[in-house]
Amino acid sequence: MRPTLTPHLVGGLNKFGGGGAPDHITDIDGVPIDDLIERFGSPLFVLSEQRLRENVRRLISAFETRYPDVVYGWSYKTNYLGAVCQVMHQEGAWAEVVSAFEYEKARSHGVPGERILFNGPHKQREILERVVAEGARVHIDNLDEMYTLEAIAAEVGRTIPVTIRLNFDTGYTEPWSRFGFNIETGQALDAARRIGNSPHLRLRGLHSHIGTFILDTRAYEAQVRIMCAFMETAESETGCEIDSIDIGGGFASRNALHGTYLPPEQVVPEIEQYAQAICDTLLEATRGRTARGKPQPTLILETGRATVDDAGSLISSVVATKHLPDGRRSAVLDAGVNLLFTSFWYNHRVELAQPPQGIPEETVLYGPLCMNIDVVRASVTLPPLRVGERLVVSPVGAYNNTQWLQFIEYRPNVVMTHGGGEVSVIRQAEDLQAVTALERMPVHLRSVEAGMSEG
Ligand SMILES: *Cc1c(COP(=O)(O)O)cnc(C)c1O
What we know:
This protein is of the alpha/beta class. The chain contains 16 helices and 20 strands. Keywords: Lyase, Pyridoxal phosphate.
């Protein structure tokens, strides 16, 4: 056997040298991994209903115990599989959508218009007409959208209550200035004035989403202070009454961003820490206002990845192994960036589903695509892998089941575990029929005979 040197890394990054962490896992949510693969094939996404419910309950309770009036809107783009959304809605979540498609999907899940928050820069007249008729909350992104809403309101002879999206510099995050109206340049106050002067619109809410995977809770304190200051100004200058402050999403999940050396357990705040920072600041910043007899604004949350990420795992099988010219080990898996879009940002946790055999070494994990960029982990310390062995990649519940690609490969089954060993398919594996169902063949291309009979 070749001698190897395994560097000791502080913080348990090298779990095989670190001790304490289990050397392999045998089940997900109590269901044996072997059974899951036998029944549903490999690769396989597994979502835990129980974990989802625990996460959403913990989020809502962290905020409700610190602030009197809280609404949670489930961010559809984070994972809009019907079963996932339904768990969220059963737990009381509204829907937060950013397109006509997501709006229609939320309605198809039975969510009433009044419980839908409609964000995003792309809202055309047709969908706005429906959204207005159904009483959903429109979060205006730009002036053109405002003009369209005004025209619709004039046509139906109503005054529409609206929310505007704000952008600003918190001092802790890269400003996302492409969405909404900017505060520093006066654009946001102009928008508020314009709404104040319109007989057809009424400003009732403020929204902002300052970024994603935000590790510093001070960014939220700054966000809330800036939004509350703007609320005071808008109310006194335009006479509007703001009834809700929507702080968007952005809480980090227990995942490891590329380039972060400390493990997530050490750098990702607990949900309660985010809640404490946000609610304390909001109570403080609205004290003067409530003293003047105004009601406390509703606090709206649109948390995405922090609620669903750790409820999802992906089981993948080793298809082949080889040594790279520089001596590193590598393995080809049956799941790659086609299914794990988030491996472009995260070093996901990779666990063995069988006992380790042999000495751990640096290994590259490739996906199945015939593409150089298809890398699941560029460097991970693993014992020698054999064809047919399984790895469990996690957390993968956020953004993968929405951003995945039908590219080169079929997308696999997605199952949900319900506790007590119960498992259901919540999205079937694709086959040729599913993938080609929307293709249409022009008549003169329907036969290959011409080409086949040549020569
Ligand atoms: C994507 C998005 C969210 C959810 O963001 P996370 O970082 O996943 O919490 C919430 N609100 C808006 C407007 C978004 O675009």
